[in-house]
């Protein structure tokens, strides 16, 4: 049955997920009902390529069960942030298996009351030393690391000064405090906010990403730090997408600018370069100890499973096997050059995140659908993840992608462009 394009005043042709967050007069069941109609509308057009079932592990090639099909299809995988390919590294797997055999499958308690094991302690020490600092705290997810930490540290007397492009977890973590946003990487506006807020709040914390997750561009960390400190504010950086990728030894944007000891908080995740799941905060020893006893999501959540011992090995491999980072950059440069030569707009990316900017949400969804037909699994990104006219196909490159896989993707983009016209006329 064909779903009508307009239901209860919402034009499905122009709608996004945000339209259904809070509909006046609709209780939770009614809101869920109309949202399901919208999902069905997208599904009929082949534009609902979310939550597709993968049969194999994340990697440069994946077995994926496409909507409406019963047999998995082999796809070039461009959706995993496993930048160095360490989720499939035999030494990482062996470390996780050995720990499960020794400790079992779960920790069984929160860290304060019996769930803090020696593999957790080693991991805290390892990630702190990786960033040339003394102390770290673990969380069960990278999302929680941000949301829980900023909830704990910033209250109604304080203010968070946020780059508008920071991760959703940062915005959630700052719901209990005051917020000022500044346009992405706009130093002039950041300075204006710092001037306007001086002397009005107990704590002022500027929060940025190192590598931004949608455009793949970098923060000008040196200039942001100089501004922040000159106005007496604190600085936190989430470099989830830069760690393992940016810097001579993969220490991220902090290494690029050699500012390890200048930033107040370093936040990140183990779900990308470090091949598992979980999050961390690195910082001043007293501040980290405070979080261990005051941050509720850390204090009252069960700790990560013994398989997290694989993370420690992954951290070591960043230094022991640097060729993975070199191989990743070979792939980044090759693939980006190929897209640009085909006429595509890849924006200002300087990382392993490669967007193909299209603009029109409908054309972006159709591009995603056609790429799947060509055996390319990528992420169409539309509002509210990006602004309404900045829809794109977002891809994450891995060290383990082959040239054949990248060429297959470039050929697919060329054919899709011939069909629906993605590139702008010059």
Automatic annotation (TrEMBL):
GO terms for molecular function: glycine C-acetyltransferase activity; pyridoxal phosphate binding. Its EC number is 2.3.1.29. Coiled coil: none annotated. Keywords: Acyltransferase, Transferase. InterPro entries: Aminotransferase_I/II_large, AON_synthase_class-II, PyrdxlP-dep_Trfase, PyrdxlP-dep_Trfase_major, PyrdxlP-dep_Trfase_small. Signal peptide: none annotated. Residues 74-412 form the Aminotransferase class I/classII large domain. It holds the Pfam family Aminotran_1_2. Its cofactor is pyridoxal 5'-phosphate. This is Glycine C-acetyltransferase.
């Amino acid at each position: 049955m064909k779903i009508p394009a307009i239901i209860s005043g919402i034009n499905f042709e122009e709608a996004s997920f945000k339209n259904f967050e809070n509909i006046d007069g609709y209780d939770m069941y009614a809101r869920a009902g109309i949202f399901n109609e919208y999902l069905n509308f997208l599904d009929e057009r082949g534009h609902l390529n979310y939550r597709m079932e993968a049969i194999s592990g994340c990697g440069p090639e994946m077995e994926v069960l496409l909507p409406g099909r019963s047999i998995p299809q082999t796809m070039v995988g461009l959706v995993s942030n496993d930048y160095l390919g360490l989720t499939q590294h035999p030494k990482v797997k062996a470390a996780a298996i050995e720990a499960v055999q020794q400790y079992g499958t779960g920790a069984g308690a929160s860290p304060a009351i019996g769930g803090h094991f020696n593999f957790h302690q080693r991991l805290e020490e390892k990630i702190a030393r990786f960033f040339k600092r003394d102390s770290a705290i673990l969380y069960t997810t990278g999302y929680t690391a941000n949301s829980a930490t900023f909830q704990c540290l910033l209250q109604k007397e304080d203010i968070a000064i946020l780059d508008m492009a920071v991760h959703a977890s940062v915005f959630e973590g700052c719901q209990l405090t005051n917020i000022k946003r500044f346009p992405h990487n706009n130093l002039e506006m950041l300075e204006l906010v710092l001037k306007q807020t001086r002397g009005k709040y107990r704590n002022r914390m500027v929060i940025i990403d190192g590598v931004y997750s949608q455009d793949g561009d970098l923060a000008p960390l040196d200039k942001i730090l100089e501004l922040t400190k000159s106005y007496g504010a604190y600085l936190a950086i989430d470099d989830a997408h830069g760690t393992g990728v940016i810097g001579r030894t993969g220490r991220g944007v902090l290494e690029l600018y050699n500012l390890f000891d200048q930033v107040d908080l370093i936040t990140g995740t183990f779900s990308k370069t470090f091949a598992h799941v979980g999050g961390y905060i690195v910082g001043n020893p007293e501040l980290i100890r405070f979080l261990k006893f005051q941050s509720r999501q850390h204090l009252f959540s069960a700790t990560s499973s013994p398989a997290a011992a694989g993370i420690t090995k992954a951290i070591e491999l960043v230094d022991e096997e640097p060729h993975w980072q070199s191989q990743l950059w070979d792939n980044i440069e090759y693939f980006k050059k190929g897209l640009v030569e085909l006429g595509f707009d890849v924006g200002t990316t300087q990382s392993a995140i490669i967007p193909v900017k299209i603009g029109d949400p409908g054309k972006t969804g159709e591009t995603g659908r056609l790429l799947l037909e060509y055996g390319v699994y990528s992420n169409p990104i539309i509002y509210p993840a990006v602004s309404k006219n900045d829809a794109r196909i977002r891809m994450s490159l891995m060290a383990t992608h082959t040239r054949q896989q990248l060429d297959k993707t470039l050929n697919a983009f060329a054919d899709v462009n011939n069909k629906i016209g993605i590139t702008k006329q010059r």
